[in-house]
């Protein structure tokens, strides 16, 4: 067994050993929903959990409800940030499943920490020279970026729950509006899609609405959502139309790419039996946003989406119930293991990080 495979086994075991505690932590956050900038309870229980497990949380990092926790040796090797979210939605509570994002983040941190500790015992450089960062992302990401929180980070990992698995860099269709007024981007996307109608065939149909355009008129929206239905007489025709629609979404935002890290993540999916849905599932997929895309303008980043065993869409009451239910736990623990395994590959094979940085610089330079 090679080093990476052996460390992944140790990582998996560490996450499994903490499964009960992780479930309790997630349920605690779910039971105490707090709006952005108000996550005092979540901040307290998360930092206490990390401290109890040997990480070094810096509480009230930049703003009151953010934190940063670290583990590692000397600077020099890859520094991987695992990002967390834990804010809730008005009235709906954790209908976006951010309690599970937090669980994935700290669960992955425990796995990565176990791997780095073993490497340190063996005197391997990946333990001596590598750092793990655990940080809050939304909704204060721009403040953290402005404060230089990602200046010493080589790459970032995060995973978001949904009704299906989807893998792509953090700027993809699950988060196309980063870096600008989210509502402006949604309106641009809506208008662009509307212009497609003159090029559609008579038997094709396309219907869409903006389901979330912000909370208050005097607050620039950090998040916007559109819901589209696409119909055509054949699967091939529908997929062609869907491709054009997605092009409109992607054109509404400035995005960077990171296919190297996505490939590392995908390589680990088979280890845990995780599969992506067929392309026809994505033809009607809800397109949501996440400000984590801003991180992808600072460092190479991935933010895959993972299923939690429900057909209910995010931002629905049904999804909120699923996010707090026991059935979501198996999916969440697998995702924590997947992120940890991806980080271990980045530590063990630094060329993945180098390639990701080269891609990042290329896409940033070319404005893609």
TrEMBL record:
Residues 169-253 form the Peptidase M20 dimerisation domain. It holds the Pfam family M20_dimer. InterPro entries: Bact_exopeptidase_dim_dom, Peptidase_M20/M20A_hydrolases, Peptidase_M20_dimer, Xaa-Arg_dipeptidase. SUPFAM superfamilies: Bacterial exopeptidase dimerisation domain, Zn-dependent exopeptidases. This is Peptidase M20 domain-containing protein 2. It comes from Ridgeia piscesae (Tubeworm). GO terms for molecular function: dipeptidase activity. Belongs to the peptidase M20A family.
């Amino acid at each position: 067994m090679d080093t990476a495979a052996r460390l992944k086994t140790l990582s998996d075991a560490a996450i499994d050993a903490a499964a009960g505690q992780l479930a309790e932590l997630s349920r605690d956050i779910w039971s105490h929903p707090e709006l952005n900038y108000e996550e005092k309870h979540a901040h307290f229980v998360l930092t206490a959990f990390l401290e109890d497990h040997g990480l070094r949380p810096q509480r009230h990092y930049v703003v009151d409800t953010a934190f940063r926790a670290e583990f590692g040796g000397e600077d020099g090797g890859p520094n991987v940030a695992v990002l967390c979210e834990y804010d809730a939605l008005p009235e709906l509570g954790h209908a976006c499943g951010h309690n599970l994002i937090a669980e994935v983040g700290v669960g992955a941190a425990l796995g990565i920490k176990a791997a780095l500790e073993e490497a340190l015992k063996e005197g391997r450089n990946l333990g001596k020279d590598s750092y793990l960062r655990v940080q809050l992302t939304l909704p204060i990401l721009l403040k953290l970026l402005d404060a230089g929180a990602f200046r010493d980070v080589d790459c970032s990992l995060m995973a978001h729950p949904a009704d299906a698995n989807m893998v792509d860099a953090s700027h993809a269709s699950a988060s196309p509006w980063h870096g600008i007024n989210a509502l402006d981007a949604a309106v641009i996307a809506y208008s662009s899609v509307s212009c497609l109608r003159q090029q559609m065939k008579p038997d094709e149909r396309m219907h869409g609405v903006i389901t979330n355009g912000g909370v208050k008129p005097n607050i620039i929206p950090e998040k916007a959502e559109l819901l589209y239905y696409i119909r055509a007489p054949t699967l091939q025709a529908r997929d062609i139309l869907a491709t054009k629609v997605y092009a409109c979404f992607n054109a509404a935002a400035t995005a960077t790419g990171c296919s190297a890290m996505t490939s590392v993540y995908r390589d680990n999916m088979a280890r845990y039996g995780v599969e992506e849905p067929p392309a026809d599932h994505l033809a009607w997929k809800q397109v949501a946003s996440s400000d984590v895309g801003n991180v992808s303008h600072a460092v190479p980043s991935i933010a895959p989406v993972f299923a939690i065993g429900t057909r209910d869409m995010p931002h629905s009451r049904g999804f909120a119930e699923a996010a707090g239910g026991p059935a979501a736990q198996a999916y969440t623990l697998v995702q924590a293991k997947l992120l940890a395994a991806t980080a271990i590959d980045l530590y063990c094979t630094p060329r993945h990080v180098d390639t990701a940085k080269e891609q990042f610089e290329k896409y940033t330079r070319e404005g893609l």
